[in-house]
User: Fold these one by one.
Assistant:
Number 1:
Amino acid sequence: MLGKLLKYDLKWLYKVLIVFYILALSFALIGRGLSEIENSIIFNILGQISIGISIAMMISIIMNNFLRMWARIIRNIYKDESYLTHTLPVNKKTIYLSKALTGIITMFTSTLVILLCIAICYYSKENIEFIKTAMQSMVA
C-alpha cells in the first residue's frame, strides 16, 4: 500500500514540478546558447536575461516543492480529503512515511535539475579551476 500512496503523491507533485523543470532547463540552454555568440551585445544581453530567468525558475522549483508538499500533507491529513485518507486500510505510520519519502524524492530530483541548470549556465574550464583552487584553500 505504501507504493500506491507514493504513486499518487508523486503524481500530484510532479504534475506541476515537471513544468518548472522544463522551463528552468530550457532557459538555461537558451541563455548558454545566446551567451556563446561573440561580438553581439544584443545576444549577450538576451543570454544574461535567459540565465536570470533560469535562476528564478530554480528558486521557484525549491519554493514550489516545499509549498506543494506542505499543502499535500495538510490537505490529506487535516482537511476534507483526510476523511478518505484515514478510512484507508493503512497504518498512520505508512501515511506519514509516504509523505516523508515523497518530500525526499522530489527534493532529490529538484536538486539534480538545479545542479544540471547551473552546469549548463556556468560550465567552463576557468570556473572549474576556480572551484578547485577555492576548495584547496578551504582544506589547507
Number 2:
Amino acid sequence: KVIIFSSVYGNEDGCFFINKAANLMNVAVSRAKDSFLVFGDSGCLTGNEKTAAGLLKNMTKTVVE
C-alpha cells in the first residue's frame, strides 16, 4: 500500500535511471495505494512533463532537506 521511492542509486551513480525506464515509475506509482514517498536528491527531478522525472518534480509538493 505504501511505496518508498529513492531518486538516486548512490553518490556517484547519477539520476539517469528515472527517465531511462519510465515504465518503472509507472509501476511504482500505480502500486501505491495509500502513499508514494519520495526520498533522494531533488536535483534528479529535472525535465519537462514528457519525462518521468519532470512529472515527479511537478507532483512533489514538499521537499525536506
Number 3:
Amino acid sequence: MKKLLLFSALVFALAFQSCSDDSDTPRSVLTARVNGVDKVFNTVNVEVQPYEGYTDLAVTASINNSPVERISFVVEQGKLGLDASWYFAYFLNETWHPKMPGFQTSVTESTEHKIIGTFAGQVETSDTGEIVTLENGKFNVYY
C-alpha cells in the first residue's frame, strides 16, 4: 500500500510538473534598495510610444501588481548611457516622488525588445518634502 501511495505521488508530481509554463519568454524584473530595504518589483509593464525619429519606452513596475508602491521611468529605445532616460519617479500611496538633481539612470543594453540598466539617487515629493533614497537599482525589462 505504501509503495502504491509513493508511486501515485510520484506520478502526480511528474504530471503537475509537465503542466507548468514551458515558455522561454524571460520575465521582466526591477530591483532596488528603497530607504535601506531591498525590494523586487516583479510586475513590469512597458508602453511603446513611437514618435517621429525615435521611440520612447514608458516602464512602470510594481510589487505583485499592487498600486501602493511603483517605479516609473522613460527611456529612449536604442539609446545607451546616462542620457537614455529623461524621466524617473517613485510612487508611494499615489504620492509622486520625482528624481532629484544627481539621480542617475543608465541604460547598458537596449534592443528592439529588451532594456537593461541601473539607477540610483534620491527622489522627493513636493507635497511634504519627503526624500526617498533608491540604491542598487537594476532593471531587466522585456517587451
Number 4:
Amino acid sequence: MRTMRLIRTPSRLYRLLALAEMVTWTLLLLGMLLKYALQVTEVGVRIGGSLHGFVFLSYVVVTVLVAVDQRWSLGRLAMGLGSALVPYLTVPFERWAHRKGMLGDSWRLREDAPRSFPEKVVALALRRPLLAGLIAIVVVAVVFSVLLQLGPPTEWFA
C-alpha cells in the first residue's frame, strides 16, 4: 500500500520519476566512465542505459499525464520534457514546478469533466489507474524494445 501512496498525487508521482531519472542518469554515466575512460567493461552502459531508457520513457509519459491534468502551457510541457534530456535537470525542474504550483495535490481530472480529447484520455486513465498503469507499462515496454532493436541513439543516423 505504501507504493500507492507514492503515486496518489501528481506531485508525488512526478517527484518519484524525477528522482528515478536522476538515479538512472548516474548509473548510465558511471557505466560510460567504466567503458570509455577506464576501459574496464561495457556492462555498466548496457545495464545503466537500459534502466535509464525505460525510466526516461516513463518520465515522458508521466510528464504528459501531469501536464494535461494540471493544464500546463505547451511551453511548460516542453520544459518538463526537455529537463529529461539534460543530466540531473529533472529534479530542479520538479522542485521549480512544485514551487510554482504546477504539480497539484490532487488529480484534477478524477473529478472535473474533461474538455478536450487529451483531457478525456487522462481522465479515463485516472479513473481506471490499474488498467491505465498496465497499458502505460506495456506501451513503454514496446517502445523500449523497438528502441533497443534500433541500437544506441548515436548509431541511428550513422
